[in-house]
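User: Could you write out the 3D structure of this protein bound to KG4? I've included everything you need below.
Assistant: Certainly. Input first, then the structure.
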Amino acid sequence: MLLTIETTCDETAAAIIDRDLSVRAARVASQEEVHQRFQGVVPELAARAHLERILPIVGGVFDDANIHPQEDLSAIAVATQPGLPGSLLVGLAAAKALCVALDKPLISIHHVHAHIYACQLAHGVDVFPCVGFVVSGGHTNLYNCRSASDWSYLGGTIDDAVGEAFDKVAVMLGLPYPGGPHLSRLAEAGDDRAYPLPRPMLRDRETLNLSFSGLKTAVRYKIVGTGKQDFAQTQLSEQERSDLAASFQRAAIDCIVAKAELALKQTMRQRLCVGGGVAANQLLRSELTNMGERLGCEVIVAPPELCTDNAVMGAIAWEKFAVSDFSELDIDITPGLLRA
Ligand code: KG4
Ligand code: ZN
């Protein structure tokens, strides 16, 4: 069995995963209440909250799985990249300490790759090779995945991640943090053609890059105009709020689906795997499925419960275990996204 630890952003998570990828135990402690009043993740508070939660969460999965860690664990795996530095450090320090105490090897997990591996877990059979698309609060990246351990970066956002755009637009519409799920609920009663919004880089067939900051700013201008007026003073009707949410959501999803299609065509892959928090969005899921049917490609979207950050997707560490790809105990974190 593996212990997997995830602390890249604002979820403290741990899981116990068997070699056949079955999940013995999994826990996630959210920090929503810590960051809600700031309408976004405050990195230092996130690190401190991880510090409080990490040992209870790890102890909790040991209890839930009813295992004897010294005897039953083969290794301890932890996400070391990419993420918020303070958050990553807490997870890595905990993992190192456990490795020393229990005399186990350490495996480092690439968090973005793990998001795609959630598709493998759900699918039950090998999903590689595929195009991997991570759509989350911190990342919007396309990969050519030749195998579970051989990835090359194809393109991604040149500014905001799509989840970040959802969250910021949600704040403009007066919704709580994290706004993505609230925004998609508000959009249900809206007309997605009510507000014409830009779809940056959508038609640029030369690149698999995307951009969401212009779309976000366009929503702002629809609400407050181009001046410095305060959101609190704007008077949108309920219908206008829903229409704006629906129009934004449609524009963002159009951009994602178009680049997913372009990536499949460019790489000539027959399978697309999508993970990350925004992949929990029902409209995105159905539009990706429609696109797959149109192209005759297989589209696998991670199950909603494995889209947002969790430690179960850390099962990707078994791939490294199989080839004894262990890390030294002096390994450091890599907060930035290396394009691989
Ligand atoms: O994967 P995740 O938990 O964290 C990162 O690794 O970044 O993704 C969190 C993001 C947030 O921006 C959240 O608003 C968004 O995923 N999200 C959604 C939905 N559920 C979560 N966005 C749109 N629609 C949803 N249903
Ligand atoms: Zn994530």
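The first helix runs from residue 32 to 35.
User: Perfect, thank you.
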